[in-house]
C-alpha cells in the first residue's frame, strides 16, 4: 500500500511536470527565414495555420480553456482518461470528456480507461469489457492502460501485475475487437534506473535527488527497466493485431536506435512524444542528423503529444499561456531550424527542420489514423 502511494506521487510529478518545458526561445539565433525560403520546411509563422493534433493531453475539467487554446493554435486534442488518484475521479473525467466532445466534436477526442479494482475476480474482464464497449459507443477513440500495471497493482499473491499477465488478455482482445487503439504507458524514463550523475535531464535528476524513495536505481528489488520493456513487448507479441500507441515514446525515449528497432519489430505500434521532448532533444544536441533521420524514416509511426494537463484547480488563463508556449516551443524544435534554450538539458537546441510532409504526419495524419472513429458495430448478435 505504502509503495503504491509512493508510485502515485511519482506519477503525479511525471504527468504535471509534463513538458514542464522550461524552454525559452532565442529569436536571435533563428535561421528559419533563410531556410524556409530555400527548403521545404515550415516557419514559426506557419504554426497556428497548419492543422495539428496533440495526441496526449488530460482535460480533467469541463472548463473550455483547453479547447479554446486548441482552437486558437490549430490543434485537435486526444484527452486521455487515467485512473490516477491525483486526477479527479474517473466518473468526473468521463463526464468532462463527454461534455467537451459534445461542445466541439471535430476538435476534442477522448480515450477511456478502466480500473484494476477486482482484477483476478471471475467477472472482472467481462465487467471491464462491457464498460469499454459502452464508452466506445459514446465516442471514445482509444483505451488507456497506465503504469499502475507493472508498478503498483499486485495480484492476490502480492506479485506485481505486469502487462503480459494472462488476466489482461481478454481485455486486450476486446479492445482490438472494438476497433480502437490501446494507449500503453509502461515503466518510467530510463533515467529512473540510473544513478543521479548519469541522468540526462535536470528535471529527472532534481526530482530523484529530492525523492530517493522513488528512485528505482536505489530499489533493485523492484522490476528493472528491462523487465518493464520485456513485459510490454511480450504483450504486443501476444496481440499482434492490436493497434498500440506507446505513450511517452514507449519508454524508449533515451535512444532513437532502440526505438527504431521496437517499431520495426511491431509494425502496428506507434509512439507519442508526450512529456519526453527533452530526452529527444538531449540526443539531437549530440547528433542532430541521427535524430532527424529517425523522424524521417519513421514518419508514419510517431504522434506529436505533450501531456498538457488542465485540472479543476488550475487558472485557465495561466494554463492557456502555458499550453501556447509549450506548443510553440515544440513546433520551433520539430518544424523549424531555429535554436532555443532548453533549461532541463542546459543546452541550446537547434530545430530539426523536418520536411513539411513529415511534420504533417507527426502533427496530424498519424494521430488521425490511430484515433479514427471505431467502426459501427454489427446490428446484432455477430460476435467477434
Ligand atoms: Zn499523460
UniProtKB/TrEMBL annotation:
Domain Amidohydrolase-related, first and last residues per copy: 120-371
Q: Which Pfam families match?
A: Amidohydro_2 (PF04909)
Q: Which organism is it from?
A: Luteimonas salinisoli
Q: What's a Gene Ontology MF term here?
A: hydrolase activity
Q: Which InterPro entries match?
A: Amidohydro-rel, Metal_Hydrolase
Name of this chain's protein: Amidohydrolase family protein
Q: Which domain of life is it from?
A: Bacteria
Q: Which keywords are on file for this protein?
A: Hydrolase, Signal
Renumbered to this chain, the signal peptide range is 1-22
Amino acid at each position: 500500500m505504502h509503495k503504491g502511494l509512493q508510485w502515485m506521487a511519482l506519477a503525479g510529478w511525471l504527468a504535471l511536470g509534463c513538458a514542464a518545458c522550461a524552454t525559452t526561445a532565442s529569436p536571435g539565433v533563428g535561421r528559419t527565414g533563410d531556410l524556409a525560403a530555400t527548403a521545404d520546411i515550415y516557419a514559426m509563422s506557419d504554426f497556428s495555420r497548419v492543422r495539428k493534433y496533440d495526441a496526449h493531453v488530460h482535460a480533467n475539467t469541463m472548463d473550455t480553456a483547453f479547447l479554446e487554446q486548441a482552437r486558437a493554435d490549430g490543434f485537435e486534442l486526444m484527452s486521455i482518461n487515467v485512473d490516477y488518484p491525483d486526477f479527479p475521479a474517473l466518473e468526473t473525467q468521463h463526464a468532462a470528456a463527454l461534455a467537451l466532445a459534445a461542445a466541439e466534436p471535430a476538435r476534442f477526442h477522448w480515450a477511456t480507461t478502466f480500473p484494476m479494482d477486482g482484477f483476478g475476480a471471475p467477472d472482472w474482464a467481462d465487467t471491464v469489457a462491457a464498460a469499454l464497449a459502452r464508452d466506445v459507443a459514446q465516442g471514445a477513440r482509444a483505451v488507456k492502460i497506465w503504469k499502475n500495471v507493472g508498478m503498483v497493482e499486485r495480484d492476490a499473491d502480492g506479485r506485481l501485475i505486469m502487462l503480459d499477465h494472462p488476466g489482461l488478455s481478454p481485455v486486450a482482445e476486446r479492445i482490438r475487437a472494438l476497433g480502437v487503439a490501446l494507449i500503453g504507458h509502461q515503466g518510467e524514463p530510463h533515467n529512473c534506473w540510473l544513478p543521479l550523475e548519469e541522468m540526462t535531464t535536470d528535471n529527472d535528476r532534481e526530482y530523484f535527488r529530492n525523492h530517493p524513495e522513488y528512485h528505482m536505481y536505489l530499489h533493485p528489488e523492484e522490476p528493472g527497466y528491462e523487465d518493464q520493456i520485456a513485459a510490454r513487448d511480450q504483450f504486443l507479441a501476444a496481440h499482434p493485431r492490436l493497434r498500440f500507441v506507446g505513450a511517452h515514446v514507449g519508454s524508449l525515449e533515451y535512444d532513437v536506435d532502440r526505438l527504431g528497432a521496437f517499431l520495426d519489430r511491431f509494425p502496428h505500434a506507434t509512439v507519442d512524444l508526450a512529456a519526453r521532448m527533452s530526452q529527444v532533444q538531449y540526443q539531437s544536441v549530440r547528433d542532430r542528423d541521427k535524430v532527424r533521420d529517425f523522424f524521417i524514416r519513421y514518419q508514419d509511426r510517431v504522434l506529436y503529444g505533450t501531456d498538457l494537463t488542465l485540472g479543476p484547480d488550475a487558472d485557465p488563463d495561466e494554463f492557456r499561456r502555458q499550453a501556447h508556449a509549450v506548443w510553440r516551443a515544440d513546433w520551433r524544435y520539430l518544424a523549424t531550424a531555429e535554436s532555443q534554450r532548453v533549461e532541463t538539458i542546459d543546452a541550446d537546441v537547434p530545430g530539426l527542420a523536418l520536411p513539411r510532409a513529415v511534420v504533417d504526419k507527426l502533427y496530424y495524419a498519424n494521430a488521425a489514423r490511430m484515433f479514427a472513429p471505431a467502426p459501427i458495430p454489427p446490428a446484432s448478435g455477430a460476435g467477434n
